[in-house]
Specification:
The chain has about 220 residues and is of the alpha+beta class. About 20% of the residues lie in helices and about 35% in strands. It has five helices and nine strands, in the order E-H-E-E-E-E-H-E-E-H-H-E-E-H. Strands 1, 2, 3, 4, 5, 6, 7, 8 and 9 form a nine-stranded antiparallel sheet that branches. Pfam families: Pyridox_ox_2. InterPro entries: Pyridox_Oxase-rel (IPR024747), Split_barrel_FMN-bd (IPR012349).
Amino acid sequence: MKEYKKSKLNSVKRGANRATYDIEKINTILDAGFIGYVSYNFQGKAIAIPMAYGRKGNKIILHGSNANRMLTSLLEAKEMSMTVMHLDALVLARSGFHHSVNYRSATLFGTCKKIEDKEEKNDALFCFMEHMMKGRWNGIREMNNEEFERTLVVEMTIETASAKIRDVGVADEPEDYNLDVWAGLIPIKQIATYPIPDKGKPESMEIPQHVLDYYEQNK
C-alpha cells in the first residue's frame, strides 16, 4: 500500500481516525468527481473557486482562458491546493450537537506549471475531456488553432495529499437512545437522468453510445 508521507501540511488533526493517506483511495475519490475547489491568492485576498479538472496519474489538469486570474495567480505562485468532496448522507441524530454528514473528501497540495508544448497540451485537454466523459473526445469537433491558442492549460503535480472519510451511522450520547426522537441517515446521491438533445440536428440524431454508456453507469 503506497501512501503520501505525513507532514504538517497534509496531516489531518481533527477526526484523525477518519483520515487516510493511501494514494489509491485518494485517487478513487478524485476519479469519482469532476469538480474541485481550488484555493489561490489574488492581490492579497484569499479566494476559492470550483473548477472542473482531469486526472492522469499524479497530475491534475485545469484549463481556462489566457486571462483567467485564478490560473495566472497559480502560475505566479508555482504551487496550489485543491479539495474534492462528495456528500454521501445527512446524519440526523437525536441532538443538534451530533448531527453530521457522511462524506469522502481529498485535499491535494502540489506544484503547478503552464503546459506550452503543443503535443503535451493536446494530451492534457484529452485527459480533461475523458475525465468528464469517457469517449467524448472522439465524438466532437477538433479545436481550431484560435481556440487552442486562447486556452490556458495548467498542470498540477500532486506532491502530497490526505483524505477524510465518514461512512458510519449516528453517534448519540448513550442516555439519548431512549428518547422519542427519530434518528438515522438520509443517503445523498448524484445521478444522471436521460440525455436531452439540443435543438436542431441532435433532435433527429441517435444518442451517441458513449453518452448512453455514461447515463447507464450513473443513473
